[in-house]
Amino acid sequence: MFVSKSGKGKNSFLSSFLEKLRRKGIIKTIAAFIGGGWLIIEFVHWILVDHYHFPEESVDITIVTLVSALICTLIWRWYRTGETKIRKIKVEFILIPIIIIASAFINILFIFQIEKVPSEANVGRRVKSSIAVLPFKDLSLKRDQEYFCDGMTEAIIARLSHLEGLKVISRTSTMRYKNTDKDIKEIGKELGVATVLEGSIQKERNNIRLIAQLINTKDRFHIWSQTYNRKYKSVFELQDEISEAIANALKFKLKVGRFKGVKSAEPIDVGAYEFYLKGQHLIETKYSFSREEEDFKSAVRMFEKAIEIDPNYALAYWGLGNAYESHYVRKNNQKDFYLMIKNYKRAYEINSDLAETNLGMGWAYFHRENLDVAFKFFRRALEVDPYNSQVNFDAGSFFRSIGLYYQAIKYYSKTIYSDPLNIMAHYLRAVCFINIGEFERTIIYFRKALDIEPNNISLLSHLALCFIFTKNLHEAENILSNIEKTNPYDPRVQNIRARIFAIKGEKCKALALIKGKIPFYYLPTSIYSLLGMKDEAIRYIKEGINKGFEHRKEYLYSYLFLKNNPFYNNLRGDPRFQEIIGKEKRKYKERLIKYMKI
After folding, report:
1. Is 60 exceeded by the pLDDT of residue 121?
2. How confident is the model at residue 79 (pLDDT cuts 50, 70, 90)?
């Protein structure tokens, strides 16, 4: 058989090279690092990051350190093992220090990237450089300018939020003090701010009279006050002027570049701005609570009028997209879905540099279940406006909806820092803590939220749920009994009561309370599990995984939820349930790797 000399030479060289690697222990070293390194990364990832909440950058730092250690070890073995020659230049003594310095530099960069989430202790503490802009009072003759006063409040908050180093309380929290009789000192303590801006607006036809005063919350000292008389057409200039005056009074300097996004969001006609404010007012303060069709339709008309005046007004399209998104989530109507997508897309096409338009596109793709693209838009929104409480809240909601609860907690905590009275952020963060199994900590968070809204039934019923998880049925039943005195037929209370019946083995009572409920939701499956009805529980859990997003606009039965929820303990030995857990764990790992770096 003919073998070419070149072929024989190649085989001989390869064999010689592999033998050299074996003799120097390089193959063994690589194998050891692959096995040991994988175990170390898994430990950092699943124990330190997931369980003990180390920064996500810990995984990156671990990988860089392991890779640099491997390269240094290989260089040392290659040059030092079995060598008898005397070399003038010790290459290893040059390369190894370079690699160590380079890896240390990369790790330092990762350390500086670690985002510091405000600790719970800082949320209610007065921060020296901090301000709350209270809702402007409507002093117009007809008292019909509430939407304009709210819009002015939000516009000034948006401008001040771009001042680096200044903590600015979000509008959601400050709106709780509309028409309040509370003392400035008390407001400052509750919001954790050193200064408060309060004022009034009188708008009659095309004239605006605005009075504003900046007050120190500790001693009620008036730091600055001013009266402005302007024409309505100069409303944007007025917003800039007030913001600049406040910045100067607080010894901050406005930088034009930081307000590029705010200025680019302004319409060419103030008439469009007025209709936009009316639409926002109808959606945020009316439809969100009333759920009345007329409020929804009125909001849509306002946004459409704004667009009619200024067809290139990005925020008007975004507001219209929000209106349809809110309606779609409640009604699950495909026409709403189409109009939501259409308006969010148009808003983004007009101005892709706004946090709002990126949020809109994020939700548009989320509802299409295109999570990869949705994630990119949420990440971009955070890059544009990282301190915006709405942006952080939406990022948290995205993570919560796909089962990444640790990440959701991080962004809900950021929301609460600048929006301490945002009850929904408190509620959803606490729910995330339930889903990671930290029930004692969750009880603390629910109680803090109840300090804000003592009679909130969702908070109270979930607090009772936490007591059930910690096997304190007596405390849970006390809470439910108190709620039932005023709201005996509230479904949230009945849901918790059904679980208590199931735990006590009162099968008929428990099953009666889930009659007519959608069988693959959390309540029925938890009841079936608690009652030992494994076939039904597992069947509907599988159905919930397949159909949950269509019904609830979030993914049901995520890995951490199933892993940590005691209601499913009866299923843990069942091979079918173990298979479900395994599949959901794989999804969780994939999503964690994909969406860890936002």
Report:
1. no
2. confident
One-letter amino acid of 532: G
Whether residue 239 lies inside any domain: the answer is yes
Q: Can you name the residues that pair with 222 across neighbouring β-strands?
A: 215
Hey, what are 549's tokens? 């997003």
H helices of 351-504, in order, are: 355-367, 371-384, 389-401, 405-418, 423-435, 439-452, 457-469, 473-484, 491-503
Residue type, 548: G
Q: How many residues does the chain have?
A: 598
pLDDT tens per residue, range 229-262: 999 889 999 999 999 999 999 888 665 555 566 6
The DSSP string of 377-408 is: HHHHHHHH-TT-HHHHHHHHHHHHHTT-HHHH
What DSSP designation does 225 have?
E
Q: CB-based contacts of 143: which residues, under 8 Å, 6+ apart?
A: none
Q: What is the mean pLDDT of residues 295-323?
A: 95
CB 457 within 8 A of CB 490: yes
Number of domains in the chain: 2
Domain co-membership, 30 together with 152: no
Per-residue pLDDT at 213: 95
Give yes or no: residues 109 and 132 share one domain: no
- Domain match, 89 and 33 both: yes
Domain contains 339: no
DSSP 125-190: SPEEEEEEEPPPEE-STTS--HHHHHHHHHHHHHHHTTSTT-EE--HHHHGGGTT----HHHHHHH
Q: Work out the mean pLDDT of the chain and round it to a whole number.
A: 88
Instruction: Spell 464-483 as b/e; 16+ CB within 10 A means b.
Output: bbbbbbeeeeeebbebbeeb
138 and 101, same domain (yes or no)? no
Place of tokens 């690092």: 33
Distance separating alpha carbons of residues 297 and 317, to the nearest angstrom: 15
241/224 Cα distance (integer angstroms): 14
Structure tokens at 319: 């507001």
Q: Which of 205, 231, 259 is the last residue of a domain?
A: 259
Instruction: Identify the domain containing residue 169 by its residue range.
Output: 120-259
Distance between the two ends of the chain, CA-based, in angstroms? 61
pLDDT at 223 over 70: yes
CA gap 234, 218 in Å, rounded: 34
Tell me the CATH number at 247.
Answer: 3.40.50.10610
pTM for the model? 0.79
Reading the block at residue 289, the tokens are: 């609570």
Amino acid (one-letter) located at 324 = Y
* Same domain as 254, residue 158: yes
Within this chain, do residues 125 and 44 fall inside the same structural domain, yes or no? no
Quick one: DSSP state of residue 472? Answer: -
205 beta partners: none
Q: What is d(CA 343, CA 538) in angstroms, rounded to the nearest whole number?
A: 40
